[in-house]
Design brief:
heterotrimer; A alpha+beta (354); B alpha+beta (342); C mainly alpha (291); A: 354 residues; twelve-stranded mixed beta sheet; six-stranded antiparallel beta sheet; 7 helices; globular; C: 291 residues; 11 helices; disordered N terminus
Chain lengths: 354, 342, 291
């Protein structure tokens, strides 16, 4: 063969091979057609979710954030790249949340919860009350006594404000899943269009949660497994020994919620209304508003609100509205706060009514 | 085969050597885009010969050599080197060919010896245990033993050239190709190169040496190929080429104008030369010329036959385009070959 | 014609390949520039380690500029952890310095040799062009490995000297034995070396098209920066899987326990694809180019 033609052939073949390989890598996972599954009613699906045993699994959870949060200069973006979950199905679990080059690891060994932060090299040990230790499920919130009645209660409550349907199937993390959809009733004044929960057809484990708003096709918020594998997990994963040099803090479970201990200045909120247009109302301590904004030298929180929020006035007085794709927050100049998945008019009205 | 240009007749047989050929090209052509670097080159390098490839800069010498060595693939035509088609047969032919092309290529941060060791590592004819000995011998041969451990960076132009030569002589070769080997060398260095070429010749090695300097070729070569504007315009044995061309008579006279006038009336072409006048002997014999002069009462000090000389040939071949207007040297010949002057 | 096919079938004499490879290595590691670059890269973990002890407080998480690079935010954890330092230093250098070193090796391998006229020397001995590419690719790969190994070694030693032997633990808080820790660093180093081979292969391919080594280095530098910029643009996320450096920040994953292999595997496969493309282009060019 002509050497020039041979060279071109080699170059073309090698390049084609490489580009094809890159194409395979680039191919989005789980883009297959929706799987065929036997039909199931919403009631049966919800019930099966409640009655399902928490399976042993390992997987990666990814969070897609399309909230449209205003960018706060100098502040870290609210992101968690991904989290890896391991669960042995018997109440022990491990959650590793990855953020850039750091990691927060939460190991729940049945009786204690270790919360380790690699950035500060601190480990927090929380001993759970005895009855919680016997509970199963990834939340560790206690035992669900009667799944059927619990499911009925929940469905009934939800149906007061929403339509619950099973809307076809989906493939999530290469698993066949039912799509359970909660749609707000027309009377609900909310920014949200629907909430979709993908439920694994076999294990009945919720695999993905997506929140959709009006006028968009991409979810405003989606959290779900990008890959999941069911099966026994090595026991070593559910033990934790703090590394040398780590700061170790001990807590009791009743000191607060186990994973996110409250800061002292945390404000209290009241829920106003119910269903989709619930608005949370509270007060922000005045000193918080005059604190310096994170990551800046000369702007305090109040000044920052002026930068990212839109000034509004009403019967409540005056304040700023911060808008996202899924909801609004109203901070008044005198330190009151109201937020919810509702249009700003609802917030203004709620605060004015109080 | 006979090559003719500007009135130079190369005798039949001069380019058809009797013996086998170490290298041969036929219809060789190389173009770079629209530029034709080499065209229709039919070169014969007889085995055992020292062939001088003569041509001004840009005449296609280096391109021809690079095609001969398989570095460049010809656009058209064929090349055989030591019986192997090139560039396909490079793996077979090149181990027996030593070459120094386009100046020596070495790494400045390595010493001369290290550079040669690197080169020798790739020599198929050297076993690993022989490498050091071969490198030292080659360094010795080109007179670089003393400077072998100095960095190449610090070498003079002549030392660099000699190191390049050493690289070509790492192993006993059947053929050695040297592209402008005396470039940058002082007279002593030039003499050394000539000695080395003579030694190679004596050992039966075919040598192809290119040069734009005639004296170098005249001094070292048995054969000559003259390139001009990308084609071979003359080739053959040096002696034949030296004898070829129009014989002429050098006449020394105090009255050159009268002499030329007298000859012109007899339609004998002549031209002015430093020693007097040069009379072309193609149209008349020497006695006829002398008779014409004497009859015209031109005083003649001396008359002797001048051989045309490779210099004359080379000058006529190559100055043509460089100096279109000053063709006084050639005009007489052209006129003699063309129509006679009135 | 028959003569030609016959001579082609006969085996041409060849110098042993190992001898060529040895000569290439000797040439590479005798070059002052290579040694200076390797030395500077080896010093990097030491400098970073000392700088971290001087700063001493890792600072609140997210307090500094976050997410600027996997390596940089890994540094947050490198303070009191001997295991993190070598990997963080590798991750940091992978962003620009190591690719530059690979580009330099690739540039010298063909373009540099062409410029010196030394490539011709080997072609005339003769070395077939396919073997030449093999030798050159080997040389570039060796430089990449040398750079990565040098950084890993000084990183481990610096980490151990500064933090002590008991401070080998993962980002997930798992304490490791010394061999296990070395294994993790070796995994990181091997993965980084593979990425550098891809960069080096691209440099080698560019190198066959020019005789200006600087042009090769500048191209790779420009490409690295361009890829980083493209990778930062969310609007182009369909393009990201095609960018070689898309998963370079995943280097920190080796420090997690258990190691999430997804992105590391993807990055490795991507590097292999780049190597296949670049080397086949380099082969095509080298076999047809004039010597």
């Amino acid at each position: 063969m002509n050497p020039k033609r041979k060279a071109v052939a080699v170059a073309a073949a090698g390049t084609a091979l490489g580009v094809a390989g890159l194409g395979v890598i680039a191919m989005p996972a789980g883009a297959d057609a929706a799987p065929e599954l036997p039909p199931v009613s919403a009631e049966a699906l919800v019930e099966s979710v409640f009655s399902a045993e928490s399976p042993a699994l390992s997987g990666t959870i990814e969070l897609d954030n399309g909230l449209g949060l205003p960018a706060i200069p100098g502040a870290p973006a609210l992101d968690m790249d991904s989290a890896r979950v391991h669960n042995d199905g018997e109440g022990r679990s491990r959650l590793a949340m990855q953020d850039g080059g750091t990691e927060r690891t939460i190991v729940h060994d049945g009786a204690t919860v270790w919360n380790y932060d690699s950035a500060s090299n601190t480990a927090t040990k929380t001993t759970l009350p005895a009855e919680a230790a016997t509970g199963h499920g990834m939340t560790g919130d206690g035992q669900v006594t009667d799944p059927t009645s619990a499911a009925k209660d929940v469905l009934q409550a939800v149906r007061q404000s929403s339509t619950v349907t099973v809307d076809g199937t989906a493939r999530v993390a290469d698993r066949a899943a039912y799509e359970l959809v909660l749609t707000p009733k027309p009377t609900e004044r909310t920014l949200l269009r629907e909430v979709r929960v993908a439920v694994d057809s076999e294990t009945r484990l919720p695999l993905r949660l997506a929140v959709l708003t009006h006028g968009t096709t991409e979810p405003a918020l989606q959290v779900g497994f990008s890959d999941v594998e069911f099966g026994p997990q090595p026991a070593g994963l559910f033990r934790f020994t703090p590394p040398p040099g780590a700061t170790v803090e001990e807590r009791q479970a009743d000191q607060g919620r186990e994973h996110a201990p409250k800061t002292e200045a945390e404000p209290q909120f009241d829920a106003v209304g119910e269903g989709w247009d619930t608005v949370l109302v509270g007060e922000v301590p005045a000193e918080l508003l005059t604190q310096q904004a994170p990551g800046s030298d000369d702007v305090n929180v109040r000044g920052l609100l002026g930068q990212i929020g839109k000034p509004v006035t009403g019967s409540f007085g005056s304040g700023h509205v911060i808008s996202t794709n899924v909801g609004n927050a109203l901070v008044t100049d005198d330190g009151r706060v109201a937020f919810g998945a509702v249009p700003e008019q609802v917030l203004i009205q709620t605060l004015g009514d109080r | 085969m006979s090559t003719t240009l500007a009135g130079v007749d190369v005798p039949e047989g001069a380019s058809t050597p009797a013996g086998p050929l170490a290298a041969r090209t036929r219809g060789l052509r190389k173009t770079y885009g629209r530029t034709v670097a080499v065209d229709q080159v039919d070169l014969d390098v007889p085995e055992g010969a020292v062939l001088g490839m003569l041509g001004p800069n840009g005449s296609g010498k280096t391109t021809t050599i690079r095609m001969l060595l398989g570095l460049v693939r010809p656009t058209a035509g064929e090349v055989r080197l030591l019986g192997h088609p090139m560039p396909e047969g490079a793996g077979h032919a090149l181990p027996d060919v030593g070459a120094l092309v386009e100046g020596p290529g070495f790494h400045p941060f390595l010493s001369g010896r290290e550079n040669l060791l690197r080169m020798a590592a790739a020599e198929p004819r050297l076993t690993t245990s022989d490498i050091r000995g071969a490198v030292d011998a080659a360094l010795e041969r080109v007179g670089l033993s003393a400077a072998a451990n100095r960095r190449y960076r610090g070498y003079s132009l002549g030392m660099k050239q000699r190191l390049g030569l050493a690289g070509a002589l790492l192993v006993p070769r059947r053929m050695v190709v040297l592209d402008e080997p005396t470039n940058g060398l002082d007279p002593a260095g030039t003499r050394e190169i000539r000695t080395i070429i003579a030694e190679l010749h004596a050992a039966g090695v075919t040598v192809l040496v290119s040069s734009h300097l005639l004296a170098e070729v005249e001094a070292t070569c048995t054969h000559v190929a003259v390139l001009h504007a990308g084609t071979v315009v003359a080739q053959g044995e040096l002696a034949e080429l030296l004898e070829s061309g129009s014989p002429s008579l050098l006449v020394s006279t105090p009255d050159t104008s009268a002499a030329m006038e007298a000859l012109r009336s007899k339609r004998i072409p002549s031209r002015l030369a430093p020693e007097g006048i040069r009379v072309d002997l193609t149209a008349a014999t020497a006695p006829e010329v002398l008779a014409a002069l004497v009859r015209a009462d031109v005083p003649v000090h001396e008359a002797r036959r001048a051989r045309t000389g490779l210099e004359d040939l080379f000058a006529r071949l190559t100055q043509q385009e460089a100096d279109e207007s000053r063709m006084d040297g050639l005009s007489g010949v052209v006129e003699a070959d063309g129509e006679a002057t009135p | 014609m028959t003569q030609a096919t016959m001579t082609a079938r006969e085996r041409a004499p060849r110098a042993p390949l190992t001898r060529l490879l040895r000569a290439e290595l000797r040439w590479i590691f005798r070059r002052p520039r290579t040694l200076v670059v390797l030395g500077m890269l080896a010093l990097l973990p030491v400098v970073v380690g000392i700088a971290l002890t001087l700063v001493d407080s890792p600072g609140p998480p997210g307090g500094g500029p976050n997410g600027a690079g996997g390596g940089e935010s890994l540094l947050v954890s490198a303070g009191g952890n001997a295991l993190v330092l070598p990997v963080a230093a590798l991750g940091m250098a992978l962003a620009l310095l190591l690719p530059l070193a690979a580009a330099m090796a690739g540039a010298d391998a063909v373009a540099g040799e062409t410029a010196h006229g030394t490539l011709r020397g080997w072609l005339l001995t003769p070395v077939s062009r396919g073997r030449l590419l093999l030798v050159k690719a080997f040389g570039v790969a060796a430089v990449a490995v040398a750079a990565v190994v040098a950084m890993a070694l000084t990183g481990i030693v610096t980490g151990l000297v500064i933090n002590g032997g008991g401070t080998l633990f993962t980002l997930s808080g798992t304490t490791l034995s010394f061999p296990a820790a070395v294994g993790k660093v070796a995994l990181a180093a091997g993965w980084v070396a593979l990425q550098l081979w891809a960069v080096g292969a691209v440099a080698l391919a560019i190198s066959t098209w020019t005789e200006h080594p600087m042009l090769v280095v500048v191209s790779v530098l420009a490409g690295t920066i361009l890829f980083s910029v493209l990778g930062a643009l969310d609007a182009l996320d369909w393009l990201h899987p095609f960018l070689l450096n898309d998963s370079w920040q995943a280097i920190g994953d080796v420090l997690r326990d258990p190691v999430p292999t997804g992105e590391l595997t993807e990055g490795a496969l991507r590097a292999l694809c780049y190597i296949a493309i670049a080397l086949s282009i380099a082969y095509a060019r080298l076999t047809t180019k004039d010597g």
